[in-house]
Amino acid sequence: MVDRKKRAQELIKYHSYASGAFGLIPVPGADVAAVSVAQLNLIHKLAKLYEIEFAQERTRAIIGALMGGVMPGALSSSVLGSAVKAVPFIGTALGVAVMPALSLAATQALGRVFARHFETGGTLLDFDVETMREHFRKEFEAARNDAGKDEAPAAAPQMEEQPVQKAG
Fold first, then answer.
1. Does the pTM exceed 0.90?
2. Which of 10, 49, 71, 85 is least surrounded by Cβ atoms within 10 Å, i.e. has the fewest?
């Protein structure tokens, strides 16, 4: 179903951008909590879209296992990015530099992994974290590498050098 795939992509995009925005919350810990809620909400909406029974605790466990097993460095950066916001002035700036991009990339990767699993007839009960971990890692890296490319200005066209003709 093309419409269902398109709707899934829209949900992933919306929740990814929301997660990125939540990464801007200046209160340490509140940003991580808000991103977690957005991610859980995304999986819930994808499950509903694909007519899959949703189980909140099972989904939390899957998300934790996927993210914890694949991105310990990014997760520690995320927690550090949140915690550093407690430092007046400089901490907020440093946290704002880290959290939005990581939050957006992680949410996008989660959405893509779950959508792919649901599209192939999978459910939350048969979600195999070990099998999906590598796919999640690749999606996360792709999302991190793509962050900000939409806003990048186009390169200026190159002008060909024309030979200068002397009057003569």
1. no
2. 10
